[in-house]
Design brief:
- The chain has 390 residues and is an alpha+beta fold.
- The protein is 64% helix and 11% strand.
- The chain folds into two domains: 144 residues, no CATH class; 129 residues, 2-Layer Sandwich (Heat Shock Protein 90).
- The protein is built from eleven helices and five strands.
- It has a five-stranded mixed sheet with strand order 1-2-3-5-4.
- It is elongated and about 115 Å long.
- The two termini are 42 Å apart.
Length: 390
């Protein structure tokens, strides 16, 4: 019973940091009660022994403790049917002790049955199990000529059963309230995401659309007036960047609305777009058996590749770029590495506190997912490696 009391007090809502004083007191009471029950059995006459009635008492005590322990969910995942069987064994052991040691602590049996049935069984099954236990012990005790103890048994076990049923009802109501609050919070968050998505669409997407249109007009005008090829290429690249920014804005809006997040399947397209915009050859390779990743991990892979390629364009004098995605048995690894021409000075160290999806943000994202991000110069360029578990 003490273990049941301890386990019940541990079943508290997520986020609770400490037990209330009442639960701690109940745990202490349970431990003291268990010690009293064991010591009381050995102190009561007839006492447990290795022969005769004493042996019956000893077997009954061990059967009572063993069957009670078998009902504990912390030790064994059990279904309701098996718990009913275990409680029936507790009742049988209590009946043996009631006959062999009528003045002992056999009344702990019906009390324990009442607590376990009230906490773990549905109302109908709980009432039937508890009533059957009381009825069986009533017949055993009355037939043995100790009917005076029946009132004590009923007055002790029934209040425990009713109190624990109330505790279960309060706990179910509390969990229902938590679920309701979580649903309300999620609904409020969804509404806020929708509002932000509308704001992003009205401001950012419209502005980028106008910019892309203006650059397209400027590009066509530059070609019609035979502007210098280098200037035309710069305008053309600016147009591609604006168009790409518009696509990113639309994807960000979709992500805010949770319409879908970019993942590893978009890395080939990302690499191809980078090669077209930068003029650098980009080699993309995948190794290992691809597997489904969590949404946060998928997004981290894509954003890390996106940021690493952006840094190549901004900071590196690269000759070529390699982008590799590897699925190993225990991790998913993304490597983005650029290679410069021989004799090229080493790249200027990257600032790790940039805007947007900077490497600092990528490190933090990787850490939240239980992984790590390493960014460091190599002999001929720069290497960014993201390693995520699973």
């Amino acid at each position: 019973m003490a273990e049941r009391l301890r386990s019940f007090t541990r079943e508290r809502p997520p986020g609770s940091r400490r037990l209330p004083a009442e639960a701690i007191a109940l745990r202490g009471f349970g431990v003291a009660w268990l010690l009293f029950a064991v010591l009381g059995t050995f102190a009561t006459r007839p006492a447990p022994a290795d022969h005769g009635r004493g042996l019956v008492i000893l077997i009954g005590l061990f059967a009572l403790i063993g069957s009670a322990v078998s009902t504990q969910p912390q030790r064994l995942r059990i279904v309701a049917r098996w718990r009913v069987v275990a409680l029936a064994a507790v009742t049988a052991a209590a009946g043996v002790l009631a006959v062999a040691q009528p003045h002992g602590v056999w009344q702990a049996g019906p009390v324990f049955v009442g607590i376990i049935a009230a906490v773990h069984l549905e109302r109908r099954a709980a009432v039937q199990t508890f009533a059957a236990s009381l009825l069986a012990l009533t017949v055993v005790v009355a037939s043995d000529g100790h009917s005076t103890q029946l009132l004590s048994m009923v007055m002790t076990a029934v209040p425990w059963f009713l109190v624990m049923r109330l505790v279960r009802a309060f706990r179910e109501q509390f969990h229902a309230l938590q679920t309701s609050r979580a649903a309300e919070a999620e609904a409020a968050a969804a509404a806020e995401r929708g509002r932000l998505a509308r704001e992003m669409h009205d401001v950012l997407a419209h502005s980028l659309s106008a910019l892309a249109l203006q650059l397209e007009t400027t590009r066509l005008l530059a070609r019609s007036r035979n502007v210098d090829d280098e200037v035309a290429r710069a305008i053309d690249q600016a147009h591609h960047l604006a168009a790409g920014g518009l696509d990113d804005a639309r994807r960000a809006i979709a992500a805010t609305r949770r319409d879908g997040l970019p993942g590893p399947e978009r890395l080939p397209t990302l690499a191809q777009a980078f090669g077209e915009q930068s003029g650098l050859p980009v080699a993309f390779a995948v190794s290992g058996q691809a597997r489904e990743l969590a949404p946060d991990a998928r997004l981290a892979l894509y954003r890390t590749a996106q940021e690493a390629l952006t840094n190549v364009r901004r900071h590196a004098a690269a000759e070529r770029v390699e982008l590799n995605l590897a699925y190993t048995p225990d991790a998913t690894v993304l490597v983005v590495q650029d290679h410069a021409r021989a004799g090229t000075p080493p790249p200027v160290p990257l600032s790790l506190a940039g805007n947007g999806y900077g490497l600092t943000g990528m490190r933090e994202r990787a850490a939240l997912l239980g992984g790590e991000l390493v960014a460091a110069p190599t002999a001929d360029g720069f290497r960014v490696e993201l390693r995520l578990p699973g």
